[in-house]
Amino acid sequence: MTAPHDTEPGSTPTASDRAVGVSDVDSPAPLADDLRLATDRVLPSRTEPLVGQLSTSIGGPVGLHAAIGRNRTWTPLRVLFLLALLVLAFSWFGKAGGCLQQTPSNDAAATMRLDWDHQRQFYGLCYSNVIAGYSENHLTPADLRGGAAPFRTYWENDDVKQYIGVPVVTAAFMYVTAQAARGWGALTEAVGLPRALDVANYFTIAALLMALGWLIAVWATMRTRRRDPWLVTLMVISPLVLVHAFTSYEVLPVMFTALAMYAWSRERMWLTGLFVGLGAASAIYPLLLIPAIAILCVRERRLSDAASVAIGALLTWGVVNGVVASIYPSGWSATFTQWRDRAVGPDSVYSLIARATGWDAQPTVVNALMLALMVAVVAGVTYVGLRSRREPRLPVLMFLLVAGLLLVGKEWRPEMSLWLVPLAVLSIPQPRVLLAWMTFDALLWVPRMALFLAPERKWVPVELFYVMAGARWIMVVALCAYVVWDLLRPAAAPHPDGGRLLQSPLPV
Question: How much is the pTM?
Answer without folding.
Answer: 0.85
